[in-house]
Amino acid sequence: xxxxxxSKKIAKISPPDSKPSQAKLILALLFAAGAIGVLxxxxxxxxxxxxxxxxxxxxxxxxxxxxxxxxxxxxxxxxKMTQCSALQVEARSKPADVQAxxxxxxxxxxxGDYLSAxxxxxxxxxxxxSASSDIYDALGQxxxxxxxxxxxxxxxxxxxxxxxxxxxxxxxxxxxxxxFGNKIESLKTLDDASHVMQTIPDRIxxxxxxxxxxxxxxALQESQSVxxxxxxxPLAMLMTGHLLFMLVRLPEAQQIYxxxxxxxxxxxxxxxxxxxxxxxxxxxxxxxxxxENILLDMIQQDPRDPKPYAKLGAMYFEQGHFKQSAYIxxxxxxxxxxxxxxxxxxxxxYAKLGDLKSSQSQQExxxxxxxxxxxxxxxxxxxxxxxxxxxARLKLALHYQNYGQFGNSLPPLQAAFSIDSGNxxxxxxxxxxxxxxxxxxxx
Amino acid sequence: MPILFLLCLPTLSCTRKTASxxxxxxxxxxxxxxxxxxSGITAERTNGAFGKRWMPETLSGGAAFLDxxxxxxxxxxxxxxxxxxxxxxxxxxxxxxLYHNNRNGSFxxxxxxxxxxxxxxxxxxxxxxxxxDGYDDIFLSAIGKAKLFHNMPDGKGxxxxxxxxxxxxxxxxxxxxxxxxxxxxRDGKLDLIVCHYVKWSPxxxxxxxxxxxxxxxxxxYPGESCRLYHNDGSGHFTDVTKKAGLxxxxxxxxxxxxxxxxxxxxxxxxxxxxxxxxxLYRNNKNGTFTEIGLQSGISLSDTGKPxxxxxxDAADYRNNGGFGIVIGNFAFEGLALYDAGVQPPYTERSKQxxxxxxxxxxxxxxxxxxxxxxDGxxxxxxxxxHIQDMNxxxxxxxxxxxxxxxxxxxxxxxxxxxxxxxxxxxxxSMVGRGLCSxxxxxDGxxxxxxxxxxxxxxxxxNETDNKNHWMGIRLIxxxxxxxxxxxxxxxxxxxxxxxxxxHSGGSYLCASDQRLHFGLGNSIHLDHIQIxxxxxxxxxxxxxDADRYxxxxxxxxxxx
Lengths: 443, 560
Fold this sequence. Notes:
heterodimer, A: mainly alpha, B: mainly beta, globular
């Protein structure tokens, strides 16, 4: 797929507003689940030489209405918390039942109830001295989320004593060291890890962590080393290609992604980045038609993945295909109705189409969402600067609640409580939240 | 509003009164020649870097074109950094540098004589006559304490600058960046807006990067609000930031631009923030502002994310009476270009205008509109340079030194990247920061001053060879502020209207030639001039021959 090799010549695409001179083929009708609606992709194919056709979204799409903003998630989150709470109660009623604690811990992790999760996993480790590295990792992650940096550090040190080759152990330890500002130590931990990792996924995992730490060059070194020994390994190709893309070494990245997407057309991540490279202004031989083809095909394969919609909508807008752009953004909003960017871009597409009323309506929603996101980003930055500041975490929790995001509010609220349980404002907020959720605060 | 219709008096000849037939103006290849060596400008910048990669080091680089002695020739002021505490070499700290224009293409260093041999970690500069005495004063932003200098007689028939910061009431400490003079309440006295970046000090410096320290992103530090100082008269200012509605502790301002975005006659303020939302403060006409960045659409990228806003400028680049606002951003963000108007939102159209893709790889600081070929259409220049002083990737375009960009306005709202055709003046890489334009030889073609982060500035002489005509207008306010900042001037030539807004600020850390410059294409005269002064006075003038500088004084019919 998506190769420029002579044997894979691609059919010419007529401009969307012109009638195709050759046979017009409706290639695909995409029937997505309920809310997704129907996408009609039209391709133009030169049948005589049987060249493969590129997918293209025509301008006769019917826009439909953009979905409204969803309400708050209090009821749905309350329901989930009630179920989780029941598991917590059950585990506590059977203090020696490993399965019950494991089930409770997993449910708590999924919900972001890290207070419960840390208790559950601690108990699990007490009960089961041969607990897997995953349990330690889950405990360490819970502690880190709660701002319990010393405990997390200890957990990962213990994990590594028991499982000296655990990638998760090294990564968790490195993150815990980082949270104390020990950057050099944190990188040294990853460096140590790179010498003991044995499997390709673990080595790539470490490379990824180097990237997370901002050391792209080292990440690339690790990843390329894996790729050299296993040139056809999709994980190594994906990671190396990604890092080359991040380093703006586009021709090399393009080469890897071209090969990878040919060998693994099912790999959505690879295809997405390949489309990004093809559309990048710095790519020599920029190929937006191929990028469009890839993104449309991705949507066909997985209509619930929002990434290709966002990229495609922007591409159509830039090329002046405002109707297609609006159409794609509406589909995206059906998946992610509170996306500020999608609302904003839909407003712009509507304006270009002359539908000023709809544009204004979307613009107003976008502004509310942008305000929300801006506040959140600022609060997150405050926490990043001062990870031990309980009040900063409380502010973030309250921000989420103000915008009806109760699910998001729980982790920072619990972290605030965990860091400074004596703070009256934090006590009051956590008690009120648990009362609103109709579940007891178990400690 | 008093409207004066004043026909020009015989001081200048009022010749043709009919519009000339206008054919398409010549869009010659713009020719800019580096004449730094022959100009006598020898000052080199230091940013004080000594290996610790402290944040201010990578951001400094301001300069100004100004006519401090009113001789009609543009002088040059270079702002320098300083060595960091304990790192001063034996030959001492550098000072800022003032160069007097010798009127023959060369300049003479007059820093010491003029009283500017001061040492500070200077960032940027804004030029304005805050006391309306007819001579331009200087505000310098800085790391630490910003300074205000009053332009005074030296008692020997010349001029000198005297620091009056403490007396003025301007107590501006921290990390100030771009600044601008603006008479926001239209009381005839220039007020001062000063952008601030982040709360940084050597003590709070954060180790960014992995094993080797890099220059930090601004996200690791809390922001610092911009400050607005109200001119109370008698040389005193009061900090009115909160009262005026400009207080924003999250602001990480690097660029400021003053323009009347909604055409209501009151100056609005646009702040380019680095990795925070850009802000547009609409003037409420009562001494306060309302921030409408989000509503206007200029706050964020079209994907709803804040970009690394740095330099900023605004101009009527489409000759439709409105403003286009351009903002320089980080690598892979591209330049942003908004067409502003009365009704927000303003659409971002850098991609349609053809400036996004060419600017995409670069980290852009200084940006400005200027009609370099006098075809009547404002061109766009950008100076680029990465914030990291080492090759952070392995892509050669991501080196710290990058080439500059010049976009020729091809009308219909589009631009063509002609950087390569300019040659070394644009293409020779530098770590670009400041960028200002001014006509230092009064030949009617706007020249350019490019300021790198370190080492020598680059003075580019505009030697574009075409037959296009031009007009330069100096404003003198009487009821309005002396500089005429906030005046809108519209000229008509060959059936085309061109408008310009007199303002301070714009670009990055720099001040450009205040004289309003109009390229007139083939028109050998202009048919009509209209001035809307910030005082509310409107003046009109009839036909005038092109290719000269004139001075128009508020309320006076005489043209000089």
